[in-house]
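Ligand: flavin mononucleotide. Inputs:
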Amino acid sequence: MGGTIVVPKGRSQMKGMIIYTSKYGSTKQYAEWLGEDTGFPVRDLKDVKVKDLNDVDIIVFGGWVLASKIQGSSWLKKNWNNIKTKKVTVFSTSGAQPTNELTVKFLESSFPPEIREKIAYFPLRGRVDLEKLNLLDSNMMKIASKLFRDDPLVNEMAKGIDGVRRDALDVLFEHIQSLL
Ligand SMILES: Cc1cc2nc3c(=O)[nH]c(=O)nc-3n(C[C@H](O)[C@H](O)[C@H](O)COP(=O)(O)O)c2cc1C
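Predicted complex:
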């Protein structure tokens, strides 16, 4: 797919919105690629008001993982009453690979069962660019790599990771098409 397929205009009356929260840009990058592929508007979570979602049928929410929790999940939980009638897809970006069983924990520590059973979840790999980390995050990485020196993921993150690939969105895009 590689971002070349755009949902044909007029094929569906469904309205969608892509909402993301991103600190260093990888989640934003995935959200923007999805926006190009689907034609859905892309919004930073901090600019979204619940009333903006009134006529939206499909919400794609992307958040990065900090200490095993999907950022922005609190917003989704807080507004779940207004959102639960919509088709909700969540993606996360993390240092962990999508195949890592930790990603199941990310979902479990971010959402209660009644929300988990209503959403589709796609873990994606993000980016840790050591040169871009602020002082606090850089120190957190250093401390984690000392405390958990036997943890392969911590060791990988401490060296830097770039797992952002457009084709990682193929399966998510197919899922969105199946909702239309
Ligand atoms: C302070 C900090 C804590 C993180 N904690 C985790 C974590 O617990 N598990 C994980 O897999 N990745 C973790 N990561 C990696 C981020 O989830 C990853 O870099 C993500 O792609 C960042 O998204 P962004 O570029 O949109 O800000 C952490 C990164 C930082 C900077």
